[in-house]
Amino acid sequence: MEQAQPHVKDYVRTVMDAIPAAVFVVDRRVQILDCNAAGLEMLGTPSRESLPKLCGDALQCVHALQSPGRCGTSPFCSDCALRNSVKESMAGDRVIRRKTQMLLVRQGQPQEFHLLISTAPFEYKGQRLVLATLEDITELEELRHIVPICANCKRVRTDEEYWESVEAYVSKHSNLDFSHGICTDCARVLYPDLFTDEGERPSG
Asked: What is the second-level CATH architecture of the domain 8-138?
């Protein structure tokens, strides 16, 4: 027996809700018109009844919440990666992908989120819209900043699987320079004659 085709609207909703990343349908004003289940979770709301809502207000962007005019009116909005990605997608009729950081209020406190934003333009009933996918990559970005170091010799493993000294690694990845000295504990081991029986360094 041939299986009945699912109702298109129900099918699309089911597929959208199965996507683990937050997916939003937004208009030119970057107003969220619809979203999937992961999007609702990111917005911290159980239903879509509160939509449409401007992205910064819906996501609880710190800058939007602190601005009297809310989303789109703060001095920081011109640099908003989500807002600019939506505009670029519509203007160039192309997919945009970029990483960004956003300060979002969660449980009453601002938290920094690292997001991978993908925007794809489409047209529906004569209206230009954008499908915006927001993937939370905060944990991955934090892991990138964990430096693997040998428990014995204290050399650091680079991305090329090469082990180099801490001094060389830090100098390569920052503007820091090193000067060398000897801490008191090592000085006692290397130069025991410089210390009294009580373990204190003699004066003079």
From this structure: 2-Layer Sandwich (3.30)
